Predict the structure.
Amino acid sequence: MADFVLSPENFSFFGEGLSRPECIVARPDGTLWVSDNRGSATRLAPGGSHTLIGTLGGKPNGMTLAPDGTLLLANIALRKFYRLFPDGRHEVFLDSVDGVPVGAANFVGRDNLGRYWLSVSSRLENHLEALDRDVSDGYVILIDQQGPRIVVDGLLFTNEVRVDAAGRYLYMAETRAGRVSRAPINDDGSVGPKEVFGPDPIQQGALIDGICFDSAGNLWVTEITRNQLYMIAPDGRCHLVFEDQDGTILDHPSSLTFAGADLRTVYVGGLNMTRLAVFRSPIPGLPLAHWNES
């Protein structure tokens, strides 16, 4: 799909009045959950009606659906991971590992084996300093039957993390480095040495944020300095799908998710956006772990 590109005419919009919609979780029934710093998250019904849920505040960001229908979400400002109930109640899901506070909590993902992969951008008290200079203190936590433990360390501002369809590799967005890294996952959940996947960096000065797989194994990447969308093929070849330097459609795009009955409708959220940008993909997305759960 190296020839697939988007133009402004390919986009529409969904939702209004959102605040910092950094992460999007789609349900098969058309419902979208969107992180929203006015509360905890906003539920968008297929018809477009909004319901603001929760009272966390701070900066809710990466999240996933648990099997019980609750949302597990990171809050980078509050430096904890939370469980959000549909009625808006919340409780701490994880705030420390190995007896130490987690730091700048960024993202929660769930794989097909029921394991959770949590990213922490930095241990610095002011995590934004890790965007201005190389601070290799980002890391990834695995939660499985053995409990939470750090499986990857030494990353440059860890952002979204994803497991591929075969469950062989963990892919990690390193925002400060402007690149994607990956590492093999062993049978016991431990992770082997990491390597760069695709260009290093994806472009000079890039700050990448969100990553998401389609069903053909392409990894889609959002870049926030030039409002770009990239696609990295399974062999590491990369091409630019869309760029919006004026920020009229995408403004600091931070994540994308495949949705719709055919998983070809793509929603893009962004740090400075108040609505979601929408386009159609020629390739369906890779169904996430919750997709076939009631």
